[in-house]
Amino acid sequence: MWYRPEMNDGRTIFVFGSNLAGRHGKGAALDAVTYWGANYGVGEGHCGQSYAIPTKDKDLCALPITAVRKYVNKFIKYAEANDDLKFLVTEVGCGLAGYSATQIAPLFFDCPNNCILPDEFLEILVHRSHAKAKKVKISH
């Protein structure tokens, strides 16, 4: 799934993977600058109609998954507090940062309903939910 610039209706936020230096030169980060109001030099949080989730450090090296989790949790709290907005989440961390969807998708498990996740993330989360349900059912 990819989000088109015409989806920017003023209440929709494009969520992308970033680096802490805010150098948005490739991938979804470049789209965030070009179409969604992200600012060069802003590597975290809400800016324009975008929200940056750091997956790389200031030197453009991948952050540990524990650090990415911290930033995703911060985003989830932001989305919960801004339930009047719709958040279009890209495959954060699955491009230039080098993580797989199976590593990143579970971090978004507790996203509120105003977050639209990529299809690949949804497939992983649904599979994970069914696996948990089966374990609970078997243990009873």
Helix-strand blueprint:
Blueprint: E1 12-19, H1 27-36, E2 45-47, E3 50-56, H2 65-81, E4 86-89, H3 101-104, E5 115-116, H4 119-139
Parallel strand pairs: 1-3, 1-4, 4-5
Antiparallel strand pairs: 2-3
How would you describe this structure to a colleague?
- Residues 133-140 have low confidence and may be disordered.
- The chain has helices at 27-36, 65-81, 101-104, 119-139, and strands at residues 12-19, 45-47, 50-56, 86-89, 115-116.
- Strands 2-3-1-4-5 form a 5-stranded mixed beta sheet, with helices on both faces.
- Strand 4 (86-89), helix 3 (101-104) and strand 5 (115-116) form a beta-alpha-beta unit.
- The chain is α/β, with parallel strands linked by helices and 140 residues long.
- The chain has a single domain, classed as Leucine Aminopeptidase, subunit E, domain 1.
